[in-house]
Write a structure and sequence with these properties.
about 290 residues, homotetramer, alpha+beta
């Protein structure tokens, strides 16, 4: 059990009455527990906490009546219940392992055109035997081949672009990992989070794959350890996970993000450890119940 | 209450053991009732009916052990409880009308890059006052400007392509309609179905928009009446709704689709009626409960 | 006959031995005469002036042996022999009017995918009768519909993107104009230049169309007058016309561009004048000789 | 000196008066000599032979006054003066080797977005030392990784698509080869031709690179031998080289292409020979004269 303190300060300017949704709170579920949290807006505006039943993303819906500059502060203490498992100890996977819940994470999405890259993925990673080895191969290939280059991409950039351009940032690394996994029939989803020791501090993006009845965490940028990211938003890709969705004019003035470790001193997972261990949600889900068989 | 008989015959060839998911059954929910149905495979294979809790799509998961040719037959009688409402009688919409359930249908998806086309949509449809008028304008514009041309597009074609090429089929018309709606902050989703009097008979694709607390149905091809389509699959776009998702080698040999009307004689909605009436799911949903307000 | 003084100062940093091509000199041909010019590099480097026989673009090929910072200064006095002709007085055009010389300007190119947009162009501009009216319609439509937004595009942006995004800068406006013209069988080419009164001062991009045996000049941004641009580079699109093509590491440190008028006071062409007059190269070329007819 | 007989029969249907350009004649220049040729149209239509001064492509411009079906027959005997040179015997290349004539073949074009793939090309081929080894590496990589799949692509498909899809036909193989070469500063151009022993017989597409003052021929499909293709059209990519460019309604009814060898029996170059030898135009051009040096 690892304990983190996370913090986010946002300054927004609004230009008229509008509603906006913020997705900055840590998820609160069986693999990650929010122990304490506070959320404030200055000057105060009506806001409502909504939790999505499907993704467990937690939104603050905020109604700004008057134009002005607003300061938003979120702080939380979060316990993360992730498990490290030796790659060699993983159970084999079968198609029985995934059900309808995982289906959206097999399909192509806005930024992850997995339908286009099956041949490419098979050429590069088809020789790996197990799903975990395939994902390890994908993460290693991305890390070796794609240049982490701030400013090289825009909000339009997709996994296809990143395959061509060979450059991107954390969001692009995650999209490419997801697209490659899905094209090999491995369910994969995107998540954002607060990452311990990320330099420069910012929101981070990583991905998870569904193998052997569990979600496993991966960071192809290697800028964080998969076991040290406090999850915020989860979805098919970045299209589902915006820090802010505004129905009207709104401008970000500044954004500060912080994540610190509250237990003993802590090291990033080494390259060696990343090769031999995978980081998983603790709970192994059974294959979904099957209501009617003929 | 309209009653339809639908039927679908598929011949598939398989090349080794594989699992595949079929999505050909009519949805069975409060706005569409399956009165009778039968599903058979010849020669028989183990199959399981699964219903997605989120989309209500109904899948037959089929396990084919041996290579061979399989004949699949689905027949159903379905009662559709859609309502026609005069455009002039619709309640006004506010942002309060949609909650987290509708959020995925506001975001861009694989084939509907609504994030790219905000300026274009505003230039073309910004002058319409209400959401319904905007959608009517979009449907009319697509009908007037995009050539319905069989063979003009592929499985890779997206709404951006269709905007450029000005040609497509039902799937492309739906994607473009959805992308335009979302870019104007109107939630929109894709559905496939059995369409009465569609020539040539085939699976059809249309879209729905969330306005004033209801889903409304639209067909920008004008090849069917929105009140005469029996819904099968629903999702963000065609990526979520495949007739068949196969985890292994499978080939479609033939496919026959039929939809007939079981009540008195029936006419397609006229152009005049399409201008003055909208087709809605009967049930108006309240805005989702809001668990915690500060 | 209009006389302009143009000036360009560039500061480049190089990181090792390299060769680079600069394309900053004014064209010197029958429709634009270079009266005086000077070109210098500090510290001096070996350089050679090369003129392309096909495009008449003038390149300085520079060999930088040592890493360092180089200051390049170009100044010229240029007489421009363009003609303004009333739209109503133009001769009719036939396919005989263009030969193999114009063929490359009918074909799609890197940033002008005219092959994709024939239906769109016909829907928007098919009702105009003559080629000149079509181009006037295209220029007006771009001016009305595309937002001139600095920073909205990158070096990858093409006419297809601009059609979708409805935003761009001078380069994007020119690419879209060219693509639309070519898709309607009107030869169109790209040029860059020094533009009188452009704010902020910079290199500018416009386009020309081949109608009735002459090249005519158009600026869909309306930021310059077509009769007040001193031409530098000409080609199918921006891919053919770079200020600098470097075979090695080179970085632009700063760039200053100036264009002033040397005769009496000068006004931009008014909206009214732009509707009734077209700006042409003075020389009307006959259709190319046809070597052998059977 | 190899001698080939080539033949092409086309049946076109026209729907009104139109002009069209055919590009089916063998090039006639210093590296390929047309010894005999005949060209006929039935029923006869006015036609003119035009030869482009830049590309040496030979066009028949045909004026069809009346709608109807036309049969076009072209036959020629062509002597090809290509040279096979051992890779080990090639002179070193410097930037001095190319001048303005080669510049268009360094720039990105409609189907060859070399501007996007510099990092990718460097990652895959940067370790090869000489330009010829780089091109050999590119041809081998394409041959190993891209599936030759008839029907997998359309007229819109570009090198970027082929990199993503890993499938294509001869045109796509050539585009990808060209884009990769240009991104490594090796001038590369597209050509079409009649290919000896191509199965099924059809027009073929290959590419040439400018290395050490000569154009060298490459076929990444390995379906033909580079020394056994009679060249027809040459350009930046397929956009410049259409069999038929029509200014009006025209439909291809059928197309038959033939290429046979007229000397002793002939074998395709073996994999071994393709590794050790390159096929070049006989004439080595000097670097272009440099008119003025300061």
């Amino acid at each position: 059990m690892n304990k983190f303190r996370v913090k986010c300060e946002l300054d927004y300017e609004t230009f008229g009455p509008l509603v906006f949704l913020l997705n900055i709170r840590a998820q609160d579920n069986e693999s990650q527990k929010v122990v304490e949290e506070s959320f404030s807006i200055l000057p105060n505006m009506p806001h409502t906490l909504l939790t999505c039943g499907v993704t467990q993303n937690r939104f603050d819906r905020i109604t700004a009546e008057l134009p002005g500059t607003y300061h938003i502060l979120y702080e939380a203490v979060v316990e993360s219940a992730l498990e490290k498992i030796p790659v060699s100890g993983l159970p084999p996977t079968t198609h029985e392992d995934f059900g309808l819940e995982q289906l959206p994470f097999l399909y192509p999405s806005r930024y992850c055109q997995s339908d286009r890259i099956g041949r490419l993925a098979f050429a590069l990673f088809g020789h790996f035997e197990t799903p975990v080895e395939k994902v390890q191969g994908i993460v290693e290939w991305i890390h070796q081949n794609i240049a982490y280059t701030i400013g090289s991409t825009t909000a339009n950039t997709s996994a296809m672009d990143t395959l061509v351009d060979h450059a991107g940032v954390c969001r692009d690394f995650a999209h490419l990992g997801i697209a490659l996994c899905r094209s090999l029939n491995i369910p994969a989803r995107y998540f954002t989070g607060y990452a311990f020791e990320l330099q420069p501090p910012d929101f981070h993006a990583c991905f998870e794959t569904w193998i052997g009845g569990r979600w496993m965490l991966w960071d192809a940028t290697r800028l964080s350890s998969p076991d040290s990211v406090v999850r915020i938003g989860m979805g098919q890709d970045a299209a589902d996970v915006s820090v802010c969705t505004a129905f009207g004019g709104l401008k970000v003035k500044s954004q500060r993000v912080m994540c610190e470790y509250l237990s003993e001193s802590r090291a990033k997972m080494s390259a060696e450890e990343l090769r031999s261990m995978v980081v998983c949600h603790e709970v192994r889900r059974e294959a979904p119940a099957q209501p009617k068989t003929s």
